[in-house]
Amino acid sequence: MDVNSALIESILREQDEAEADKYVKKMASTAPVQNGDAYAWQTVSYHKRNRRPSRPIPPDSFADLPTADVFRSIELHSEDRRRRIREAQNGDDGSDAEVAGAAENGEPKKVKLKKPKMTVAEGASKIDSAHLGAFLAEITEVYQSQQDIQLLRLADYFGRAFSSVCAPQFPWFKIFKESTVSKMVEIPLSHISENVYKTSVDWIGQRSTEALGSFVLWSLDCILADLSNHQGGTKGSKKVVQQPSRCQVAIFAVLAMVVRRKPDVLISLFPVMRESSKYQGQDKLPLTVWLITQASQGDLVAGLYTWVHLLLPLLCSKSGCNPQSRDLILQSVERILSSPKARPILLNGAVRKGERIVPPSALDLLMRVSFPSPSARDKATERFEAVYPTLKEISLAGSPGSKTMRQVAQKILNYSVKAVKKGIPGLSKEASSIFIWCLTHCPKCYKQWDMLYLDNLDASVIVLKKLSDEWKEHSVKHTSLDLLRETIKSFREKNEKALANGDVLVHHSLLKDADKYCKLILGQSSQGHGCMKSMVLVSVALAMGAAIMSQNIQPQDLKKLAAMFNFPLTINGGISQN
Questions:
Q1: What are the domain boundaries of the chain?
Q2: How many CB atoms lie within 10 A of CB 263?
Q3: d(Cα 410, Cα 122) in Å, to the nearest integer?
Q4: Exposure on the CB side of residue 190, measured as CA atoms within 13 A
Q5: 95, 110 in Cβ contact below 8 A?
Q6: Higher pLDDT residue, 377 or 117?
Q7: How far apart are CA 352 and CA 395, in angstroms?
Q8: Which of 3-12, 33-42, 103-112, 455-464 is predicted with the least confidence, judged by mean pLDDT?
Q9: Hey, which residues does 355 pair with through a beta bridge?
Q10: Which helix (H) or strand (E) element contains residue 487?
C-alpha cells in the first residue's frame, strides 16, 4: 500500500469514528431518562409496517426538529472529508485547490491573475549587461569549483528574463520546420543586444571544455524532450514533463552562445551524438543544422568540419534522405561557402589540428552525390555540382611533395579506382582525373597502381585512355616521365602473360584495349623524350662550335661540358655519335 492510500484510509477511519461518537452522544442527550438512570430498562415498541401513513408534514416544520442540525453536521464533515481526500491525492496544490474548496463551501471563486504576455524581443530588452556582469562575477565566486552549476545558473538568469514569454511567442519547432537556414540561425540571438552577448560569450570562453560539453548535452536533452511533446511521443515511451516556453528560450540562447564561442565543444561530442540514437533521425535534422550554423558563425573551418562529419554521411545513408532533408543539408553548406572570404579561409585551414576538414572518404561521398547516374539526377544535383569544385579543392589542398600529401594521395587513389569502376560516365570521368592527380603528387602511387592493375582492369583502361587522349595536358604535370614509362612497361608484360595463359577470356577485350593505350603512351612519352634530347644535342653542338671558333677551349673543359650533358667522349676528345 502506497503513502497516499494509507493517508486516505486514515482520514476515512478518523472521520467515521468522529461522526459515530457525535451521533451517539446527540441521540443519547435527546432520549427520555427514567428515574435519572440513563442505563435503566426501557420499553421499545415497533410500528406496524402496514399502518397507513399519516398526513404529510409541511416542509417548514422540519426546521424546528433537532435532527436537522445533525444531518447538516454530517454533510459538512463529508464535504470536509472529500476536500481532504482530494488534497491528499493531488498533493498540496495552491490556487486550484483553494478555488475548488471555496466553490464547494458556497464562497465566491478566486480568479487567478494572468501574467501579461511578452515577446522574446521584449524579454531580451530587459536584460542589462552591467547587471548580468555582476551576476556572473557573483556565481563565479560562489561556485568556484562547479562550472557546470555556473552554466545552469546562467541559463536560469536568462530564464527569469523570459519568464512572461508564452509558447505561441516562441514556436521554435514550427520555425525550424518552416524557415530557411538563414532565418533559423538568428534564433533567438537576434533579439539579444550586442553588449549582453559580448558579456556572456567572454565569460563562457573562460569555462572548461568538459563543463561546456556537459551543458550542451543537457540543453539538447531538454530540447529533445520538448520535441517529443510536440510530436506526441511514441507508444510505450516514458512521459516527459514539458519545459515552460521561457526555459526553451533561455536554453536556445545560452546554447547558441556556447557553440559560437567554442565550436570545438560540439566537435568533441561527435562520438556521443553518433552512438546515441536519441540524437539521430530525420526529425532531429533541423536541430542539428541549427547547431552547425551556430558553429560556423564562430568559425568557418569548424562549421565545415561539423557539416562534413555529421550531415554529409546522411546523404548516402541506408535509410535514405528525403528532399526536405537534402535541401536543409545543402542550405547549410551553401551558407558556409558563401560567407565573406570563405574560400581562402577554408583553404588555409584545410588541415585542422592534424585532421583534414574534407578527408578522402568525404571526397568520395561528394563525388557520388555530385555525379550520379543520369536517371538519378534531380533538382539537388545541380546544387551539389555548384559546391563540389570548392570542396574538392579544399580536400586536395596541401604542400606538394609533403609526407601528409603523399599519404592523402594514396588514400584518394583507392577511392578513385572504386568510383571509376561504377561505370557512370560523369563519375568515371571525374574519378579518373583525380586518379591522375594522385600519380603526379605521389611517386608511390605508380607502384600502388601496378599492384591494383589486373584486379581493376576496367578502371585501368579508362585511366590509360584518358592519359593517352589528354597527353599534352597531363604530361607537363609530371616532374619525371621515367616512373610512368616503367609502370606502362610493367603493364605490357602483365598483358602479354595474361593473354598467353588463355584463362581470362572475359578480360580478353580489356587486355587488348589496355595494351593498345600502353603502346600509345609509350610512343608519346618517347617522342617527348626524343625531342628533349635533340634540343640538348643542338645546344651542345652550338656551344662546342662557339668554343672551337674561339680556340680557347681546353680538353679538360670539353670533358666537363660532355659530362654535364651525359655525352661520352672519344679517345681523341671528341663527342661520340651514338
A1: 1-26+66-113, 125-298
A2: 24
A3: 58
A4: 7
A5: yes
A6: 377
A7: 12
A8: 33-42
A9: 352
A10: helix 482-501
